[in-house]
Specification:
Largest sheet of chain B: 5 strands, parallel
Number of helices of chain A: 13
Shape of chain B: globular
Largest interface: A-B, 28 and 28 residues
Structural class of chain B: alpha/beta
CATH architecture of chain B: 3-Layer(aba) Sandwich
Number of domains of chain B: 1
CATH class of the largest domain in chain A: Alpha Beta
Oligomer: heterodimer
Number of helices of chain B: 10
Distance between the termini of chain B: 15 Å
Order of helices and strands of chain B: HHEHHHEHEHHEHEH
Number of strands of chain B: 5
Radius of gyration of chain B: 18 Å
Order of helices and strands of chain A: HHEHEHEHHEHEHEEEHEEHEHEHH
Radius of gyration of chain A: 19 Å
CATH topology of chain B: Rossmann fold
Largest sheet of chain A: 7 strands, mixed
Number of domains of chain A: 2
Helix content of chain B: 40-55%
CATH architecture of the largest domain in chain A: 3-Layer(aba) Sandwich
Number of strands of chain A: 12
Structural class of chain A: alpha/beta
CATH topology of the largest domain in chain A: Rossmann fold
């Protein structure tokens, strides 16, 4: 049954972002929170630390520039924004005002991939390619709130700029328990397996865990790596998976070119490693139309059904 | 009325900057942004030598004023003034400018020259950065000012006006933007391409305290304007709009589109130095 909800409630499932940053602000007065009028989960921070909160209005270039100035003066600014605009409208400010001087600005932005429901203006399907191109930038894609909280907490002592793409968050999917440990720059082996490895990030990790279960019923053992840090890539974990399972799938809610799959392919190529098979699932070269993320994943051939079908064929099941 | 002696002191310093910049340009086989350097030299000299609390001895002092050269292509001019202040020597600039491994190049690089407040050069970036610096100072209860030097051409960038709105909303009375209004872009006279006027009113409409200097190459007017800044603890950011002449002081550069940037041969350098000598002689006479 359909329920009514406001945009604020829709976005508030990601209150883990606001809650975590507010908690950090309590123990570290270098923490600032800025937003270009997105501000999901900012309410508590704004009430408790009004002198360290800035809403620039709908002005992504400005919010990055102001954050740069704050960081030059020794602060740690967190920006909560929308990824299509943080990665494209403000790209030059991110590159020149944040990455060039290697400042600790943290960009947390929703509407990752096709999760925005807004049509192609509001899909972030190039962001990992663009941000990965920036020297000094660390690029993360969070798959669940437990992981997201840890990335945000650990970012406090992390050198240089860092970005995290997240989905809008109505479905606040919990994949991990609190004892899971996520280190920025390291992949996380969510499920072990021997026959094939799925390297996924962000929204696609929950589907990869579903694939693990479905494939198990068919006697296929699927390793699932949650590659929540896309740059710098955990090359060791990629090479180990290629060596131990032979076959690789890379699954991302992003253009299949220049995102996670390309980073994995670079690693294999650079090390002269040739897996038995290598398959990408993600957004093809299109500007997707409207629909829910699930519908679009199906339409563009990277939902669970499509990947399971590929795996079945690969193993003759 | 600005003190005559002080005005002449600053004029002599500005003369020295112009001359040293021309010599640097004469000795360097590459483009230096002479046009926009010459237009802002007087106001930049006043800022560094009269208005701002800055200097090598204050480089690590949290109470120092902050200066952001948003029109980063004016780096050479700023280096020469910084050398006057004793941050480094003029000779070091001349010997290494634009070379591999140098601290000094076409746009200011904080990575190479750590005593800068920021790396700049992409236009329209400096004011947002300055807003961040000013907001930080205010939050920490510090009383220093943040000065941001822009060219009028760069205020075509929308990010300048985004930052102008934020600065007003945050009540950043410690922020002073200075616009070198030389009425020229790189390839045209500004009013032929974009309608900037009524320029002062635009800033007023954004809620700023807008101060216009009729002749932004007249040191008396500059000193007067910069001596009258509101208290850093006030609630409204200030913009000083200095009407200047691009290429000021060099006969063959003044108001010439082609002299946005360039290099000087021996003959042109000689002419330039003669022009500058004439200018300072007149200024000396006026101040007696």
């Amino acid at each position: 049954m359909k329920q009514s909800y406001t945009l604020d409630e829709y976005n508030s499932a990601r209150s883990v972002v606001g809650d975590t940053i507010t908690a950090l602000a309590a123990k570290d007065n270098r923490v600032w929170l800025l937003t270009p009028d997105i501000g999901f989960g900012c309410k508590d921070f704004k009430e408790q630390y009004p002198d360290r909160f800035i809403d620039t209005g709908i002005a992504e270039q400005n919010v990055v520039g102001v954050s740069s100035g704050l960081a030059y003066d020794g602060n740690i600014p967190f920006i909560i924004g929308m990824m299509p605009f943080m990665s494209m409208r403000a790209l030059e400010q991110v590159r020149t005002d944040v990455c060039y001087p290697n400042l600790p600005v943290r960009i947390i932005a929703n509407y990752a991939g096709l999760t925005g429901n807004g049509g192609s203006t509001h899909y972030a399907m190039e962001d990992m390619a663009l941000y990965s191109s920036l020297v000094n930038m660390t690029v993360c894609a969070a798959s669940d709130p437990v992981q997201l909280r840890q990335i945000i907490e650990k970012s406090l002592d992390y050198e240089g700029p860092l970005s995290i793409r997240i989905d809008p968050g109505k479905e606040n999917r919990i994949l991990y328990t609190d004892d899971a440990n996520f280190e920025i720059g390291k992949g996380y082996t969510a499920r072990d397996g021997e026959d094939i490895t799925v390297i996924a990030c962000g929204e696609m990790v929950s589907y990869a865990l579903g694939l693990h279960e479905e494939a198990k019923k068919l006697g296929i053992s699927v390793r699932v790596i949650d590659m929540f840090t896309v740059k710098p890539l955990d090359e060791e974990l990629v090479l180990k998976a290629a060596k131990e399972t032979g076959r690789l799938i890379v699954w991302e809610d992003h253009l299949m070119k220049n995102g996670l799959a390309s980073a994995v392919a670079d690693t294999l190529c650079d090390h002269g490693v040739s897996p038995k098979s290598f398959k990408r699932f993600g957004v093809p070269q299109v500007y997707p139309g409207f629909g829910s993320a699930e519908e679009l994943y199906h339409l563009y051939g990277y939902d669970l059904e499509a990947v399971l079908s590929y795996v079945k064929e690969l193993f003759g099941k | 009325m600005a003190d005559k002696k002080e005005v002449l002191r600053l004029q002599e310093l500005a003369y020295n900057v112009r001359a040293n910049l021309c010599k640097l340009c004469g000795g360097y086989d590459g483009n230096i942004h002479m046009g926009g350097d010459m237009s802002m030299i007087d106001i930049l000299t006043c800022l560094f030598h009269h208005t701002m609390k800055v200097g090598p001895e204050l480089a690590q002092d949290p109470k120092r004023d902050r200066f952001i050269l948003s029109k980063g292509h004016g780096a050479a001019c700023m280096y020469v003034i910084m050398a006057q202040k004793g941050y480094f020597t003029y000779e070091e600039i001349c010997e290494t400018y634009g070379q591999v491994g140098s601290k000094f190049g076409q746009h200011p690089c904080k990575t190479r020259l750590p005593m800068l407040e920021a790396s700049t050069g992409s236009l329209g970036h400096g004011l947002p950065i300055s807003v961040g610096l000013a907001a930080s100072a205010k939050q920490k209860g510090e009383n220093h000012r943040v000065f941001c030097m822009m060219g009028d051409g760069e205020t075509c960038e929308g990010s300048v006006w985004e930052a102008a709105m934020t600065a007003r909303a945050l009540k950043l009375g410690n922020l002073v933007a200075v616009v070198d209004r030389n009425h020229q872009l790189m390839t045209s006279f500004s009013e032929d391409s974009v309608m900037m006027d009524p320029y002062v009113d635009k800033w007023k409409a954004f809620g700023w305290n807008a101060v216009e200097i009729q002749d932004g190459n007249d040191m008396r007017q500059i000193v007067k304007a910069l001596d009258s800044l509101p208290d850093a603890g006030s609630q409204v950011p200030t913009v000083v709009i200095a009407n200047t002449v691009k290429g000021k002081g060099i006969s063959f550069m003044e108001r010439q589109i082609k002299w946005h940037a360039g290099s000087l041969n021996e003959k042109d350098l000689k002419t330039a130095m003669e022009d500058l000598d004439k200018m300072i002689e007149e200024q000396r006479k006026e101040q007696v």
